[in-house]
Structure formats: structure tokens, C-alpha cells
Specification:
heterotrimer, A alpha+beta (758), B alpha+beta (289), C alpha+beta (158), A: 758 residues, alpha+beta, Aldehyde Oxidoreductase, domain 4, seven-stranded mixed β-sheet, globular, B: alpha+beta, Uridine Diphospho-n-acetylenolpyruvylglucosamine Reductase, domain 2, Uridine Diphospho-n-acetylenolpyruvylglucosamine Reductase, domain 3, Enolase-like, domain 1, 3 domains, four-stranded antiparallel β-sheet, 14 strands
């Protein structure tokens, strides 16, 4: 793809370095503006009334007292939003149903979880808005509720949707249930496969719902004008998606809504959907004033999507020599109040890293009275991996094989089959295993009450739509814009790729994220897609700009454009026959732009395919206190194939972050409900994410097996790292204590109970 | 909407008068690290908030009769930073060092910790084990109260309306004394104690324990003083047999509930485990190790 | 609702503001004074992203009443750099890539500076325990700890 430029040196000049990011100084000085940091004159504050009940029919809502409170400018209910058709739209794995979405934004017939938004108020101060909320009278008919996924599947469970008939079952059931969908992937002959096995392990596992835990609550500011034009400042992982969802939910034309990307304080998938934006826009429309909303931490836990909790059974068969012969998994994931758990991902990813000729993977998407689940870093894959990677560990012990070697023996590579259809098209997994086998600490002896565990994980990574634009400024510096929200430093990565392609200094490239009116469509910053797909768009834009620069130079030299090459940031004559011309810098060409054709700009758009998946293999050492069940992480080493590290420090940071989220998921994080179906731990005190003193330094190893479908070999890095930790830790605990834990989180009282059990 | 009044009295007696004279809910503000949360939740809507940090005698740490007196407005960090106090009462310091985070400790006070009366409060078992006496001021004057008599139940104290704590007195330490506070939390910091144990002991010249106080937190509706646990140590060299009896006594005294932070079974077991470990730590301190 | 009048010093500058008696200092900073560098992550003192110093004492501004600022000196993230010159900690955070989304960064910088003012040569463990009150969800803390230790080295002239 690098057709018209070449670097005179073999090594990269920019790609692979770790410079300071363009948004760095604003972020360390407190100047960067996140979703809650914007204000406008005449701004109103909005608060949201939420259901205190886990499941209730809404008989009536009386807003008159709230509306009468001085300072209240508008009260909003679902009656203010248009109806949406019931239809699953888009690819199955990521299908969207606006009938559900609008009901999640503001409830209609029923409150389906504690915290479900019922109404909203905009007032001149936050205090008045809060007071007004308390004056809204809702007549609820409280209904029995169900929280746990296995219980929700029970035929006698309280049913959330009286007309929900399970999809994917032939013939379709006659009775409604909470099972919204069943899916199955199958390849080979399971019975024959298991018959060949020398060892078979079948085990059930359970995981709890965990929240993405971003420190920034959802926030936005909306200004709806009398002319129907609206501006929205929102912290999200995809302002184009925010625009699309918000416009649809409000019945607006997309072009009438401009979304400005605020800086985002963490997302991990949870900010690829909308909660407050439609409400803010609707209130702004109703009041004629700008409206600001910031969710409280409690509401974030109660009313924004955690990932699913799951219940699963995994059965794997292996031969004495370590060859995996058959695998069968049943994965039941709780979707929360509306369909859409990541069960399809869980089912597809479960066995994806391994060559297994006979596989069946069944998934159930189950609704229950909890907040609707949202994406969380490799959504679904960490859940099924917990079961699969634990079972592999047990099998390794049964056949007396090192657990890394068991994985290496069966590791997929380019050309290997999957259970869900397409063949793998990339290498990289084996390399992540090998680097740990070679790691000096892998064979370090451990002490009393200590154990070492390994696990691997897979994530598809994403491609999709991205747009990039490049302008050459009058002084030859470069403005690069994309529409990809920057969650972890991607502005720097884009600038590095642009600098590399153009052959200029990183410092001369100003890398920005443009709003929805200033650049073409960009899909979300998620799915580990941005460095790959948006990077492709950036490189393509650079290539197009280089064409223009060559053309401008040819005009300046009055030669044929074929006689101009672009090399190391300069236009040069292709050879002596073209003429004796001094190389032209961007600055020199830009200076003459008016007489060579005008502004030097371009835009490039891609719908990227050819992405390569993420593989991660990890080992960790733990020490278990046998009298308390407390688990201490002594060492954690995580290897991941990143293709090529555009900005190595950011790649390491992604691995550190995903691993630590995995550690929290493994040891302490869970949603705890009381008997009324209300969340008992809706805060950072009792929803326990890891703190600095809980952890050692995490060692991240960047394995580079470049992706041939990307000019710089990029494979997405953000997600695969969260897939292995829970099983790695469970496996380590088993080594330390002799006890196998099958339920997450592996909190101290559970570990102690396992240790003490006879 | 009723307005909240904020007052900053200059003397303890003035504070007592203001507290007693308020019809509605009046709250003392020392560190504010619990009160602010309750106000934000809407659990408490005070008519009056009384900032005691302007009262001179509530801000000091002084030597008195060979012991220490520190005021109700003294923050955990100030206690931690007081070298002499920290050396004398390392167990109380253990507990003060575990309240919340550094940020919380910069504001939180032992008096606030006691009067918020969470059964899991960290400094309470340590203060009880130390034999601390609270000086209370009220509309009828001042009185001295052993700290174990202040908490009545979750969120409730035995203080009468209009009463507030002025200061705490910790008696002079006998030679060969040591104290320790240990707690169990799922994370290394930031959590509310699942079980807390404060333990104080004194040895004679032959290494025999002559005095002990053992207090358990988070295993009952308030922090417990457990004489049977202390009795397991007194008269012994705090050897393995004594420690085993101590652990059993601690577990027996625990009457915890199942809640989101721990189960009955777990807490009961851990009361014993931590009592033993706290005794070991107090013992090495008593021996000067 | 009658407001309280408060006179205080913020980042070395005299400041006056009106606030309700029950308003937190964080709320005053962000919404009365437009100083949005201190963040609200939880409002209950559990995340540390609102950290400021109050008379040199590291605190969560969500747990302090606005009226308690009377007569005190407050330092926020907005005052950490000296014009164009970043504090060593800020510089090291950038060099070490110790931030990803950056929402916890202001609170951590304030907390780290407070640590180094008291303890110029902390161990890794001491840094971790001091920063336990500052939650970060993105970085796993690795590069934050490295940046603080590196800043400490430089500030010691080591």
C-alpha cells in the first residue's frame, strides 16, 4: 500500500516510538474538557427519576407537582419521545433494536430494573431539579422479579416481556420466557470426538456481572435551537453512533444534530451506547435552553450496562499426547432488562484459539431484572474463557503436560479452522505462548501457599468504517483529523502513522478528533479497531496527499508528474533526467499552493476488512493466605500479539489496564443484589476495583507478528488482554491450594470455604 | 426548602448549647468524611451543621499525667504524624492508618469514627483496647466515658441530645506494653473492615501477661470488648496454647451478620485468626522487637 | 436560599465566592468557579479524582464543605504548572505515558505531589499505599508508579 513513498532507511522513524500525545498537556493540567466540563449561558441542570423497583408495571406518572416547582422548566417522560418499531437491525453479533433502546432511555409499560429511568426534569439549578424529581408521583404495580440467569431461565420465572418467544429454536416455543435467543455453532462429530479422548473434563462455572468501572460518569450538554439544529457535547466512544442513536430516538434528521467529542474518562465499551444524550436533547428541545446532565456514580452502577454474568458448562476431551479432540460448551449470559448479551461472542471465542475438529458451542441470551448489559472489553470472550481455560488446566494436569505446552500443541495459526465458519487468517497465538515458555520467571520456584497459573485468550478485533482528513497548512505543518474518539492515545498513534507515511516529524502533525459535521462517518472507538481501521484511513489519506504534493511539485518544476517522487518528506526528481531540482519540503510546496491549484487537502474513507485477531497468553503467581482466603498477586506476565506497536508505551498501557481489570473481575468485582432486587453495592466502596496497593508491576510483553493487511502491520491491542486473567488466577489458586474455584469472583470467603472444605 | 445552617463555635460549651437548642437534626462536623456522604445520600438533612474544628481544645495532642489527650477535631493524619504518640500507641496508629485513604485520613477524626458508630469503624476497637476515656461535654457539663460505652448500635451512640466529644485520654503505658489493630478487607486499602481486632497487652519482667484488652469490630452491632479473650492471655506467656484459647474466645464472642461485606461463617472464623495475629503483633511490640 | 460568603486563597490567588451551606468544595470549584480540573468520579470520597490540598493537607474536595474553605489555602491541579513550565510530575506522567483517558490524572498528580513533599524518596510500596485512594481504571497503575518514582528521583537531584 506504500506505493509512492519510500523511506530511505529500513527502520521506521516515527512508528515504534513513544512520543508525548497531543492531548497530554491539557490532561495533566486539568484543562482538558470531559463530558461534565462544558457549560453554556442559560444552562439548565437535569436530573433523572429512576425506578426503586426491580420489576413493576407503570400505571401512571403524575408530573404536575414537579412542573409547578419554581425553577423547573420542563419534565420529560417517554410520552415525549416517538414510538420505535420493533426490529433487530444490523449484523446479528451487534444487532440494535430501537424499540428496546427507547424503553431503556425512558421506561414505558414497565420498570424493568431498579434504576430504570422513568422521567427527567430540567431546572435552573441541580438542587431544584433534584427536589422536583422527588415530587413526581409514579403509580407502580410491583411485580415479582428475577436476577440470576439460571433462575431467569426457569419455566416458572417471572417474565419480563409477556410476548418474548425464544428466537433460534425450531419449532418456536409456544410459551413466552426470558430466553430471548438460542444460538449454536457446530463442526464435526462430538460423540466420535469424545470417544477418542483419553481424558474428558466437564465442569460448570458461574461468573458475576461486572461493570466497566470508568471513573467518569456519563455526562453531556445539549443545546437545541428554535431552528431544529442541535449541538451536543458528549463523552462517548463514538460520537457518530451517539448522533445516530440520539437522532433516531428523538425522530430527528441526522444532519440536524452535531455531536462534539468531549474528552472521555474511560469507556471500555460501556460508552458505545447512549443514556443521557437523548434525554438532554429532548429537554433542551422542550425548554429552549441548553441542558446539562451528569449521572451520579450510584446511577452509573444501577442504570448503565455492566457486562453479563454467566452460567456455563464446558466439556473438553484430550488425548494422552495433548491433542484436543472435542469440545462442547453451553453458555448462558444474562442480558439485563433488554436482549443483547454478548453471548454470541462468548460462544464464538470460547474455543477459537485451538484447533479442535469437533466442537459445539451453544449460547442463550436471557433477560432479567438488571440494567441492560453493554459491551465490556472483548465482550463475552472473558466469560467463556474462564470456563474453557480452567478446564484446559485440569486436562493438562491429568495428562501430565505443562499447560502452556498443551496450548501450544493445539494453537491455531493462519489457515486453521474455527467452529463458527471462516478460517483463521493470521498467525500470532503460538508466538505469545512461546515467549512465556522462554520467560526466565516461568520456571522460577515458588514458596509455600503459592501457585502459578496460565491462560490464553482470543478476541476478533474489528475493522469497519473510518474517515480521515489531512490539510497541509500554509507553513507546511499538517492537520490530521479523524472521527475516532481518543480513549487511550490514538491521536498520537494516528500522528505517528501520518508522520511515518509522509516522512515528516511527528511534531509537525497536529492530530485532532473532529466533530460529526466536520468529517465523514467513523464507527465507534471499540473492538480494538481504531489503530487498524482509522490508521488505514489515515495512511490512505496520506497517500492521496502525497499524490497531490507530487502534482504540485511537478507544476512548480514544470515537469511530468511521473518524474516526481516523494521521499523522506520531500518532493524530489525521480532521477537526473528529470532535471536538477532542489528537494521541495511541505513548507515550500504549501507556500506556492495558490498558484498550483489551491488548498492542499484530502479525505479518505474506508470500510476496513482484513483485521487480525488479538491473542494473549498470560501467567501469574499468587500467594493464598490459608487462614483468610486472601489472594495476593505476586507476579503477572502478559504477552499479546499486537502486530506492530505503533506507540509501544500505549500498547503496554493497554495490556496493563486490561490485565488489572481482569484481576478485579477475578477476585473482587460483582453486582450484589438484595432480596428486593436492588443493588446493594452501587459505589466504589463496595464495588471493589483494584487499587494501587493491591498490585505488583504487571509485565507486558509486546509480541509483533505484523498484519500484512495493514501498512504498518497493526493488530488491535485494546481487548484480548482482559480475556485470560480470571482463569489464570483460578489456575494459580488451584496450584497454591489444591482447590478449584469455579465461581467468580474468587473472593476471600469463597477461597477460604474451598480450602476448608473436606 | 429549609436552609441548612452552618456554625463555627469557638468553645465546646457553646457547641453543646447550639446542639441542644436545635429543634431539628443537628450534626457535629469534625472531619466530615461520613457526614458529607450521608448528606449527599439524603439520609440526613441537617438543620444545623456545627464545625468544631475552630475549638482550640479539640485540636491539640498533649501529654497529660504521663498519658495522652487528643482532641475531637484531630485528624487521623495528625495523629499519624505525631511521632511520640505514634511510638507509644502503635496499635491506635495501625487503626488510624487504615481509615479510608490518605485523603480521607487528612480529614477523618477518631471522634467522628466513634460517633458515626459504624459497627466496622476501624479506630474504635483499637481505642477500646487501649482503654481510652472520652471526655464528653453537654448542656449539663462534662463527663468522662470509657469509649466502649459510646456506641449503642449501628449509627447510634449513647450520647444525649446536646452532647459531643471534646477529647480522648489514653492512660500512661506500663513498661513492656504493646498494642495492635488488624483488620480483614478484600482489597489492601479503601474497604470497610470485614472483621477488626484491637488488642493491647502488658507483660511483666518475666514475660507473663499481666493485663490485656481485646476488642472486636464488625462482628456485632457495635464494637465489643471481650473479657474472655483477654482472660485467655492474662497469666500466660502468650504462647501457642494461650493464642489458641484467645482465638476460640474471639470467635465465640463474635455475633456477626451476613451482609454484602462478609458472611457470618467467614467473620466468625476470621475473628479468631485476626485475634491471634493481633496478639502476636502486640506481643512483639511489648517485647520491644 | 441565602448564600454564604466565603473568602479563601486558591492556587495562591485570593478568591471570594457565594455558595449554599451544604455545597461541597468540589461543587463550588467546578460549578461556581468554573475550575473543572478537579473531577467528580463518585462524590463519596472513594475515587480520589477530586483531590486537592487544603492548607497543604491532601483531601477529597467532595468531602469538604465549600464554607470550610474560609480562611484556608487550597491548591488544585490548575495551579500545579508554573505558566508554561510543567511540574516535574506532570512532565514525567507525559513521558511515561502514565495516563490513558486522563480523568484520574489531576487527582493523582495532586496526591503524588503531596507525597513527595513529605517523603522525597518513597519506595514503590509507599507510593502504592499513598495512592490507594486514587482509583485508575485504565492504566493498571504501572506507569503511574514509574512516573512518580522517576519524578522523585529527578526532584532529589539523584
Amino acid at each position: 500500500m506504500l506505493t509512492n513513498t519510500k523511506n530511505t532507511e529500513q527502520t521506521f522513524k516515527s512508528v515504534g516510538t513513544s512520543p508525548i500525545r497531543p492531548d497530554g498537556v491539557p490532561k495533566v493540567t486539568g484543562m482538558a474538557q470531559y463530558g461534565a466540563d462544558y457549560s453554556l449561558p442559560g444552562m439548565l441542570w437535569a436530573k433523572i427519576l429512576r425506578s426503586p423497583h426491580a420489576h413493576a408495571r407503570i400505571r401512571s406518572i403524575n408530573t404536575s407537582k414537579a412542573e409547578a416547582l419554581p425553577g423547573v422548566k420542563a419534565v420529560l417522560t417517554s410520552a415525549d419521545l416517538p414510538a420505535q418499531p420493533f426490529d433487530y437491525i444490523g449484523p446479528e453479533r451487534v444487532a440494535v433494536n430501537y424499540w428496546h433502546m427507547t424503553r431503556n432511555i425512558l421506561a414505558r409499560e414497565k420498570a424493568l430494573y431498579e434504576g430504570h429511568a422513568i422521567a427527567a426534569v430540567a431546572a435552573t439549578t441541580a438542587a431544584i431539579a433534584a427536589e422536583a424529581i422527588a415530587l413526581i408521583e409514579v403509580d407502580y404495580e410491583v411485580l415479582p422479579h428475577v436476577i440470576d440467569v439460571d433462575e431467569a431461565m426457569h419455566p416458572d420465572a417471572p417474565v419480563l416481556f409477556e410476548d418474548m418467544i425464544t428466537r433460534g429454536v425450531e419449532p418456536a416455543p409456544t410459551k413466552p420466557s426470558n430466553i430471548t435467543k438460542r444460538l449454536e455453532f457446530k463442526v464435526g462429530d462430538l460423540d466420535a470426538g469424545f470417544a477418542e479422548a483419553d481424558e474428558i473434563v466437564e465442569m460448570s462455572f458461574k461468573t458475576a456481572a461486572v461493570h466497566q468501572g470508568y471513573i467518569e460518569p456519563h455526562s453531556c450538554l445539549a443545546r437545541y435551537g428554535a431552528d431544529g439544529q442541535c449541538e451536543l457535547w458528549s463523552a462517548s466512544q463514538g460520537h457518530f453512533v451517539v448522533r445516530a442513536y440520539t437522532a433516531k430516538l428523538l425522530g430527528m434528521e441526522i444532519g440536524n444534530l452535531v455531536v462534539h467529542p468531549a474528552e472521555i474518562g474511560g469507556g471500555f465499551g460501556g460508552k458505545t451506547v447512549v443514556y443521557v444524550e437523548p434525554i438532554a436533547v429532548a429537554l433542551s428541545r422542550k425548554t429552549g435552553h441548553p441542558v446539562k446532565i451528569m449521572m451520579s456514580r450510584e446511577d452509573v452502577f444501577k442504570a448503565t450496562g455492566p457486562t453479563s454474568g454467566g452460567s456455563m458448562t464446558v466439556k473438553i476431551g484430550v488425548k494422552k499426547d495433548g491433542t484436543l479432540v472435542a469440545a462442547d460448551g453451553v453458555f448462558k449470559l444474562q442480558a439485563g432488562a433488554f436482549p443483547g448479551s454478548p453471548v454470541m461472542n462468548a460462544a464464538m471465542c470460547a474455543f477459537a484459539p485451538y484447533i479442535i475438529p469437533n466442537v459445539r458451542s451453544v449460547g442463550f441470551d436471557v433477560v432479567c431484572n438488571r440494567p441492560k448489559s453493554a459491551a465490556y472489553r472483548a465482550p463475552g470472550s472473558p466469560i467463556s474463557a474462564f470456563g474453557v481455560e480452567s478446564v484446559l488446566d485440569i486436562l493438562a494436569q491429568k495428562i501430565g503436560m505443562d499447560p502452556l505446552k498443551l496450548r501450544l500443541k493445539n494453537a491455531v495459526k493462519a489457515g486453521s479452522p474455527t467452529a463458527y465458519g471462516p478460517k483463521h487468517s493470521h498467525d500470532g497465538f503460538a508466538e505469545t505462548i512461546q515467549v512465556l515458555l522462554d520467560h526466565p520467571d516461568y520456571n522460577k520456584p515458588l514458596g509455600k501457599n503459592q501457585g502459578r497459573g496460565v491462560a490464553s485468550g482470543f478476541w476478533f478485533n474489528g475493522g469497519g468504517e473510518s474517515t480521515a482528513s489531512i490539510h497541509i497548512n500554509e507553513d507546511g505543518t499538517v492537520v490530521l483529523a479523524t472521527g475516532s474518539m481518543d480513549v487511550g492515545g490514538s491521536r498520537a498513534s494516528m500522528a505517528l502513522m501520518a508522520a511515518e507515511t509522509l516522512g515528516v516529524q511527528y511534531a509537525s502533525v497536529r492530530s485532532t478528533v473532529a466533530d460529526t459535521a466536520s468529517i465523514g462517518y467513523n464507527h465507534v472507538t471499540g473492538g480494538s479497531r481504531v489503530t487498524f481501521a482509522t490508521g488505514l484511513a489515515v495512511v490512505e489519506a496520506c497517500n492521496k496527499i502525497i499524490e497531490q504534493l507530487r502534482l504540485r511539485a511537478s507544476i512548480m518544476w514544470d515537469v511530468d508528474v511521473k518524474g516526481v517522487v516523494w521521499e523522506d518528506g520531500f518532493a524530489k526528481p525521480a532521477d537526473k533526467s528529470v532535471g536538477e531540482f532542489e528537494p521541495l519540503s511541505l513548507k515550500a510546496i504549501a507556500a506556492k499552493r495558490a498558484v498550483t491549484g489551491g488548498p492542499i487537502v484530502t479525505e479518505a474513507a474506508v470500510n476496513a476488512g482484513g483485521q487480525a485477531p488479538g491473542f494473549s497468553t498470560q501467567f501469574c503467581d499468587v500467594e493464598v493466605d490459608p487462614e483468610t482466603g486472601a489472594v495476593k498477586i505476586l507476579r503477572f506476565v502478559a504477552a499479546q500479539d499486537v502486530g506492530r506497536a505503533i506507540h509501544p508505551k500505549y500498547c503496554e498501557g493497554q495490556i496493563h489496564g486490561g490485565v488489572v481489570q481482569g484481576i478485579g473481575w477475578a477476585l473482587n468485582e460483582e453486582y450484589i443484589y438484595d432480596k428486593q432486587g436492588r443493588l446493594a453495592n452501587a459505589g466504589f466502596l463496595d464495588y471493589r476495583i483494584p487499587v494501587a496497593s493491591d498490585l505488583p508491576m504487571i509485565e507486558a510483553i509486546l509480541v509483533e507478528v505484523p498484519n500484512p493487511n495493514h501498512p504498518y502491520g497493526v493488530k488491535g491491542v485494546g481487548e484480548a488482554n482482559i480475556v485470560p486473567p480470571m482463569a489464570a488466577i483460578a489456575n494459580a489458586i488451584q496450584q497454591a491450594t489444591g482447590k478449584r474455584l469455579t465461581e467468580l469472583p474468587m473472593a476471600p470467603h469463597k477461597v477460604l470455604a474451598a480450602i476448608d472444605a473436606v | 426548602m429549609s436552609e441548612m445552617r452552618f456554625e463555627r463555635p469557638k468553645t465546646a460549651e457553646a457547641a453543646a448549647v447550639l446542639l441542644a437548642g436545635t429543634q431539628g437534626v443537628a450534626k457535629v462536623l469534625s472531619g466530615g468524611t461520613d457526614l458529607m456522604i450521608h448528606m449527599r445520600n439524603g439520609n440526613v438533612k441537617p438543620e444545623l451543621v456545627l464545625d468544631i474544628k475552630g475549638i482550640a481544645e479539640m485540636n491539640t495532642i498533649t501529654v497529660e499525667d504521663g498519658g495522652y489527650r487528643f482532641g475531637a477535631a484531630v485528624s487521623c493524619m495528625e495523629l499519624l504524624e505525631h511521632e511520640a504518640f505514634a511510638q507509644t500507641w502503635p496499635g491506635v496508629i495501625d487503626s488510624a492508618n487504615l481509615v479510608g485513604s490518605v485523603q480521607v485520613r487528612g480529614r477523618a477524626t477518631v471522634a467522628g469514627n466513634l460517633c458515626t458508630a459504624s459497627p466496622a469503624a476501624d479506630t474504635v476497637p483499637a481505642m477500646i483496647a487501649a482503654g481510652a476515656i472520652a471526655r464528653v461535654v453537654g448542656p449539663n457539663g462534662r463527663r468522662e466515658v470509657p469509649v466502649e460505652d459510646i456506641p449503642a448500635g449501628p449509627g447510634k451512640t449513647t450520647l444525649a441530645k446536646g452532647e459531643l466529644i471534646v477529647s480522648f485520654f489514653l492512660p500512661k503505658r506500663a513498661p513492656h506494653s504493646g498494642d495492635a489493630y488488624l483488620r480483614f478487607t478484600p482489597r489492601s486499602e479503601m474497604d470497610i473492615a470485614v472483621v477488626g481486632v484491637g488488642l493491647c497487652l502488658t507483660l511483666d519482667a518475666n514475660g507473663i501477661c499481666t493485663h490485656a484488652r481485646v476488642s472486636l469490630g464488625a462482628v456485632a452491632e457495635r464494637a465489643l470488648l471481650v473479657p474472655e479473650a483477654a482472660a485467655a492471655l492474662i497469666g500466660t506467656k502468650v504462647d501457642e496454647a494461650a493464642l489458641t484459647k484467645l482465638a476460640a474466645a474471639a470467635s465465640a464472642a463474635a455475633r456477626p451478620i451476613d451482609d454484602k461485606r462478609g458472611t457470618k461463617v467467614f467473620r466468625t472464623k476470621l475473628a479468631g485468626v485476626l485475634a491471634r495475629r493481633a496478639a502476636e503483633k502486640a506481643l512483639s511490640r511489648a517485647k520491644g522487637i | 436560599m441565602s448564600k454564604q460568603h466565603v473568602t479563601t486563597v486558591i492556587n495562591g490567588d485570593p478568591v471570594e465566592f457565594l455558595c449554599s451551606a451544604n455545597q461541597s468544595l468540589l461543587d463550588v470549584l467546578r460549578n461556581n468557579l468554573n475550575m473543572t480540573g478537579s473531577k467528580e468520579g463518585c462524590g463519596t470520597g472513594d475515587c480520589g479524582s477530586c483531590s486537592v490540598t487544603l492548607d497543604d493537607r491532601l483531601v477529597c474536595s467532595c468531602l469538604v464543605l465549600g464554607v470550610e474553605a474560609e480562611g484556608k489555602s487550597i491548591q488544585t491541579i490548575e495551579g500545579m504548572a508554573n505558566g508554561e513550565h510543567l511540574h516535574v510530575l506532570q512532565q514525567k506522567f507525559l513521558e511515561h505515558a502514565a495516563l490513558q483517558c486522563g480523568i484520574c490524572t489531576p487527582g493523582i498528580l495532586i496526591a503524588a505531589r503531596s507525597l513527595l513533599e513529605r517523603n522525597p524518596d518513597p519506595t514503590e510500596k509507599e507510593v502504592r499505599f499513598w495512592l490507594a485512594g486514587n482509583l485508575c481504571r485504565c492504566t493498571g497503575y504501572n506507569k503511574i508508579i514509574e512516573a512518580v518514582l522517576d519524578a522523585a528521583r529527578e526532584m532529589r537531584g539523584a
